[in-house]
Amino acid sequence: MTERTFSIIKPDATRRNLTGKVNAVIEDAGLRIVAQRRIRMTEDQAKKFYEVHAARPFYGELVEFMTSAPVVVQVLEGENAVARYREVMGATNPADAAEGTIRKLYAESVGENSVHGSDSAENAAIEIAQFFTDDQIVG
Ligand code: ADP
Ligand code: MG
User: Which residues are CB-contacts of 100 (< 8 A; sequence separation ≥ 6)?
Assistant: First the structure.
C-alpha cells in the first residue's frame, strides 16, 4: 500500500550540513520526497507539534532545540511509508539504533537525534496538514 509520512530533518542535522546525506538514506531506502521546505520553526509551531509530550520532563528542552536552527519539513511517499521510515530512522536513542539507520549514522543524542518520522498513518495526516497544503505535495 502506497502511503505518505511526515519527516523533519532536525536542527542538529541542518547545522552540520547533513540535509543531503539524510535525503540520500531516505531515497536509497525507496522512499520518495514528494514535498520539502526549509523553515525556521516558531515556538508556537514546535509546542503544537510536540503537544503529546507536553507533560514529559524534556518538553521544554525539545521545543527549544527544534527552534534553535532551521529544520527541513518533508512528506515522504512509498510502500508502507510510515513503518518503513521508522525503520530507516532507527531507534529514538542513537545508542540503540541499528547499523545503517539515519540515527545510528548521524544522531548526536536521544534529544538531538537528527530526524522525526510519524508514528502512525493517522498522525502522519495530522502532521502533514500542520506544514503543507495538498497542492504543495507533488507525488
Ligand atoms: P521518536 O522521535 O523516535 O518518535 P518520541 O516520540 O518518544 O521519539 O520523542 C520525540 C522526541 O523527543 C525525540 O525524537 C527526541 O528528540 C525527544 N526525546 C525523546 N526522549 C527524550 C529524552 N529522554 N531526553 C531528551 N529528549 C528526548
Ligand atoms: Mg514520536
Answer: none
Does the pTM exceed 0.85? Answer: yes
Helix ranges (DSSP H) in the chain: 11-15, 19-28, 43-49, 59-66, 81-89, 102-106, 121-131
How do residues 64-80 score in pLDDT, each as one tens digit?
999 999 999 999 999 99
Q: Give the position, in ligand 1's atom list, of the atom nearest the Cα of 111.
A: 26
User: Which one-letter amino acid corresponds to residue 76?
Assistant: L
The residue length of the chain stands at: 139
Q: Which three cell numbers stand for residue 23?
A: 535525503
Report the nearest atom of ligand 1 relative to the CA of 113.
16
Whole-number pLDDT of residue 34: 99
Q: What is the DSSP letter of 114?
A: S
What secondary structure does DSSP assign to 10-35, as a single string? -HHHHHTT-HHHHHHHHHHTT-EEEE
